[in-house]
DNA sequence: CCTTGAACTCAAGTTCACTTCAACTTGAAC
DNA sequence: GTTCAAGTTGAAGTGAACTTGAGTTCAAGG
């Protein structure tokens, strides 16, 4: 029950839904690990399927590769994750999801009130005034939290 | 009340919170329009502030430039938008926001139940089984709607 | 053995949404 | 009339997350 349980690239790819190239990329980025066959081909442990599922969910929620690497770093590479391990990382996630949900609800609230006012007047509607309000509060303030704002590209 | 009401780049930039370069980019992409001074400098109508506010909100919600262009296309370029105009596009938005909110709540729900099960077993937890489940349902199925999935990059 | 499909590597390309740069030109103020 | 911040253009660069391509090797079935 050792080398027979290892899965080849194709299997991992189709079962995870990721392209082989993406899987290689994740390995290069240190998100997953692979053993090698005699001839140099990758052989994956079953547990990488779990990691890949995590990666997909995380990136769907908007985490970057870097953040995902951090999260996965909290999982023990060698031993099976314990309840406490999952608890730690999922607390982190829960908060992020709550943030996103709240932000979208705020945005929708703003939109609803905008429909109410008809947006005919630049003076009375918070939404159509977002420009002026943003100028006084800094770009994109408070409608959405950092976690949902587009990461301003070349601005690090 | 014609040429005196037009705003220069700097004003638009600071009031909208967008960098001048971004504003030029949006003009090039056809999201906004600008008049020109005798010497070729941009002069903006006040209404572009509203458009820019819309652009910011839309892109925060995850719409692409292309989608935003479509949305803005529904607004009349010449006449002042009517209540009905805004109603049309905001219905569209409301639905999208509802989708996103629901998706995040589903994701969080899944996560919560995962904490409950402790994720010690690959067999019993929907979350840790996401890989296999995804393989049978197609990549990334049903946890998130298309609107929230990362647009698979070079796959058009 | 031979074929064939799956896998390998490494460099380079792609998309999106901008930003940065270099080299000018404008235009409001004094 | 001079000054200089603010504006202009076009081309090139950026970062994230992969994909694509070229050329080569592996490994399982017949």
Can you walk through the features of this model?
Chain A is mainly α. Chain A folds into two domains: 1-81, Multidrug-efflux Transporter Regulator, Chain: A, Domain 2, CATH 1.10.1660; 87-147. In chain A, 54% of the residues lie in helices and 4% in strands. The first copy, chain A, has six helices and three strands. Chain A has a three-stranded antiparallel beta sheet with strand order 1-3-2. The interface between A and B is large, with 58 and 57 residues. Chain A binds a DNA duplex (30 and 30 nucleotides) through helix 2.
Topology:
2 copies of one chain form a homodimer.
Chain A lengths: L6 E2 H8 L3 H9 L6 E2 L5 E3 L2 H14 L4 H10 L8 H35 L12 H8 L19
Antiparallel strand pairs in A: 1-3, 2-3
The structure holds a DNA duplex (30 and 30 nucleotides).
CATH fold-type name of the largest domain in chain A: Multidrug-efflux Transporter Regulator, Chain: A, Domain 2
Arithmetic mean of pLDDT of chain A: 69
Distance between the termini of chain A: 48 Å
CATH architecture of the largest domain in chain A: Orthogonal Bundle
Please tally the helical runs of chain A, counting DSSP H or I stretches of 4 or more residues: 6
Please identify the top-level CATH class of the largest domain in chain A.
Answer: Mainly Alpha
Spell out the helices and strands of chain A N to C. Answer: EHHEEHHHH
Shape of chain A: elongated
The oligomerization state is: homodimer
Number of domains of chain A: 2
The rounded Rg of chain A comes to: 22 Å
| Total beta-strand segments of chain A | 3
Share of helix of chain A, binned: 40-55%
Structural class of chain A: mainly alpha
Largest sheet of chain A: 3 strands, antiparallel
Pick out the low-confidence regions of chain A.
118-156
For the largest interface, the chains and their residue counts are: A-B, 58 and 57 residues
Q: Please state roughly what percent of the residues of chain A sit in beta strands, choosing from under 5%, 5-15%, 15-25%, 25-35%, 35-45% or over 45%.
A: under 5%
Cross-sheet strand order for the largest sheet of chain A: 1-3-2
